[in-house]
């Protein structure tokens, strides 16, 4: 069995950094496995406030956030990032147990995915975001 | 939003659970050793596993992995082609012995990252959790494991040799989304197997004890018979009458039984209950109405002797799908299995007439008398709804005089009651009296029940010793 076939076919070119906002270390560990297996470079923040600071510092290509995170919820984080020119280009995936796709889109999210974690839809969604990110970069050039 | 279900692959259990276990849930399968927990869980795994939905079966300390697989292969659901491709067996005991119980969430994370399972089984989880050095460690590890399983798209089964008294004490029961308890009850020296849903979060289920059996194909579940939620009322349409097939009986109850009615045929041994009932089925079959005889005393060979004696060609109507004998040993049968088998056939359109011979055998296999009365009531309501006309026989101990027909108000639940007995004269003639009909007028007189080479027939009214001899 190799369920990583899908992820191999959409492996991002170069080092694509994904910043993941997730408070639970066990879930962080599992997400790291799957995202690194799919070829991403992964950093974590435990809460929304530190994620905002880290996003400004690291300028990741993608930010993945749960809505239910401490200090600043994922939707507020999303609005904050999209409102600042220096972080507005970060592509945001809201990845949550809450059925809140409309709210996530209103907050400026580029994609929404419902938990629980299933590696195939997660990697597929990210690959679509990566393709968009690379198009944006090519457009700038 | 209702949760998707993972079918158990066991029709009766899916009915009990409302379609199966909720997907992405943590489920507890509990019961004493030998209750059938592992068989049930493996059967579910083999029914569901695929390349898209791989299953990881983790054995622990209750049984070595090799012995476990050896035992499992004796069941027909065990498909070796699935093992190693769609179903992975791993021993969790050894790595935990080396790393300690606290390493359990990390180990499971590694297994998940490696195998991507959508179904995950811990067998036995109880044996595993006994490795916790303190209650606090046990609780913390369980919480971390539950967090992992709640966040990962996978349906988990925790199998354990837990007794009912542990449910309020152990944290695993509070965390579990569902609890399925497998039990054994001893009745007259025989074990009967039952299962019960103790908990099913966010979903309704069929409450109570549900019988199940274990055979070569694994587990078969027979959901407890419940009263139907809708009812059919009888109409005055004479076309809805069903001829009894017994000469002279139809005019005693206007023109036959109401379709969908239940008739109690009570009488002492040898009074003609089985003969009358078989004739009801056979004559119905000749008229194109399929019938089912459910018997617990006479086996098919003995029944064939009776029917052959009357010159009935039951083999012919049997081949045409109009007559079926369903024999169950009165020692081993379970009430709900009998009902399940009957309604399997009814729902396939194979039964319009039914005989249950005899109620006393069913009663002896019931765990309590209240349950038996509920069961019979539900049966009669289902027969009315499904328009199955039923005769149920009941054996009375006294030969000549009766103080009550049955002790469980079964006669109240029946639409009609036919009382068969012997006259007290030396000849001991058989008689039949219609004691009760619901929604019909009836002849109140006691009639002779005559037995000939063609079957039974209702004769002239019996007027007692003096008059009949004059």
Structure description:
The complex is a heterodimer of chains A (141) and B (470). Chain A has six helices and five strands, in the order H-E-H-E-H-E-H-E-H-E-H. By secondary structure, chain A is α/β, with parallel strands linked by helices. Chain A has a single domain, classed as Rossmann fold, CATH 3.40.50.2300. Chain A has a five-stranded parallel β-sheet, sandwiched between helices. Chain B has helices at residues 11-17, 37-48, 65-72, 93-99, 104-115, 125-129, 135-151, 171-175, 273-286, 300-309, 314-319, 335-347, 359-364, 369-386, 410-413, 464-469; strands spanning 5-6, 21-22, 26-31, 55-59, 87-91, 119-123, 155-160, 178-187, 190-200, 210-215, 218-222, 241-242, 257-258, 262-268, 291-295, 323-327, 353-357, 389-396, 416-422, 430-437, 446-452, 455-461. Chain B has a nine-stranded mixed β-sheet. The longest helix of chain B has 18 residues, at 369-386. Classes of the chains: A alpha/beta (141), B alpha/beta (470). Chain A binds chain B through residues 1, 3-4, 24, 26-27, 29-30, 33-34, 37, 99, 115-119, and chain B through 1, 24, 51, 54, 85-86, 105-106, 109, 112-113, 115-116, 144, 147-148, 150-154.
């Amino acid at each position: 069995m190799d369920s990583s076939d899908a992820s191999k076919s959409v492996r991002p070119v170069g080092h694509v950094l994904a910043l993941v906002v997730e408070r639970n270390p066990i879930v962080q560990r599992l997400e790291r496995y799957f995202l690194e297996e799919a070829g991403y470079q992964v950093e974590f923040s435990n809460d929304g406030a530190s994620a905002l600071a880290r996003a400004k510092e690291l300028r990741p290509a993608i930010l993945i956030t749960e809505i239910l995170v401490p200090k600043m919820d994922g939707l507020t984080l999303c609005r904050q990032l999209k409102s600042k020119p220096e972080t507005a280009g970060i592509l945001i995936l809201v990845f949550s147990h809450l059925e809140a796709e409309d709210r996530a889109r209103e907050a400026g999210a580029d994609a929404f995915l419902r938990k629980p974690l299933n590696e195939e839809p997660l990697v597929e969604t990210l690959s679509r975001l990566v393709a968009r990110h690379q198009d944006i970069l090519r457009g700038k050039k | 939003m209702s949760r998707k279900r993972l079918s158990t692959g066991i029709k009766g259990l899916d009915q009990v659970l409302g379609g199966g276990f909720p997907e992405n849930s943590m489920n507890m399968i509990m019961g004493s050793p030998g209750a059938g927990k592992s068989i049930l869980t493996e059967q579910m795994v083999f029914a569901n596993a695929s390349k898209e939905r791989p299953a990881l079966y983790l054995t622990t300390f209750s049984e070595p992995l090799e012995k476990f697989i050896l035992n499992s292969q004796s069941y027909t659901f065990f498909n070796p082609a699935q093992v190693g491709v769609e179903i992975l067996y791993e021993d969790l005991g050894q790595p935990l012995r080396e790393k300690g119980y606290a390493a359990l969430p990390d180990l499971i994370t590694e297994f998940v990252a490696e195998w991507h399972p959508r179904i995950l089984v811990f067998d036995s989880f109880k044996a595993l959790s006994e490795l916790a050095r303190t209650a606090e460690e046990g609780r913390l590890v369980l919480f971390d494991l539950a967090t992992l399983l709640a966040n990962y798209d996978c349906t988990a089964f925790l199998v354990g040799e837990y007794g009912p008294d542990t449910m309020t004490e152990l944290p695993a029961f509070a965390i579990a989304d569902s609890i399925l308890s497998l039990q054994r009850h001893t009745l007259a020296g025989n074990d009967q197997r039952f299962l019960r849903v103790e908990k099913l979060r966010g979903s309704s289920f069929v409450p109570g004890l549900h019988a199940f059996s274990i055979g070569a194909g694994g587990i078969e579940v027979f959901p407890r018979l419940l009263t139907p939620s809708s009812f059919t009322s009888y109409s005055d349409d004479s076309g809805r009458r069903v001829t009894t097939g017994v000469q002279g009986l139809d005019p005693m109850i206007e023109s036959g039984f109401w379709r969908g009615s239940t008739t109690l045929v009570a009488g002492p041994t040898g009074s003609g209950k089985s003969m009358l009932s078989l004739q009801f089925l056979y004559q119905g079959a000749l008229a194109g109405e399929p019938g089912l005889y459910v018997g617990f005393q006479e086996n098919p060979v003995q029944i064939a002797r009776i029917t052959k004696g009357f010159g009935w060609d039951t083999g012919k109507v049997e081949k045409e799908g109009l007559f079926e004998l369903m024999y169950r040993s009165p020692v081993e049968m379970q009430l709900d299995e009998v009902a399940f088998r009957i309604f399997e056939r009814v729902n396939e359109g194979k039964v319009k007439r039914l005989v249950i011979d005899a109620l006393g055998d069913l009663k002896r296999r019931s765990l309590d008398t209240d349950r038996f009365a509920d069961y019979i009531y539900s049966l009669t309501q289902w027969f009315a709804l499904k328009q199955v006309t039923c005769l149920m026989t009941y054996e009375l101990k006294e030969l000549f005089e009766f103080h009550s027909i049955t002790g469980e108000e079964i006669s109240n639940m029946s639409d009609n009651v036919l009382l068969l007995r012997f006259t007290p004269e030396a000849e001991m003639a058989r008689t039949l009296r219609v004691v009760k009909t619901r929604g019909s007028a009836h002849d109140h007189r006691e009639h002779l029940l005559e037995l000939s080479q063609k079957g039974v027939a209702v004769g002239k009214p019996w007027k007692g010793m003096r008059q009949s001899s004059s």
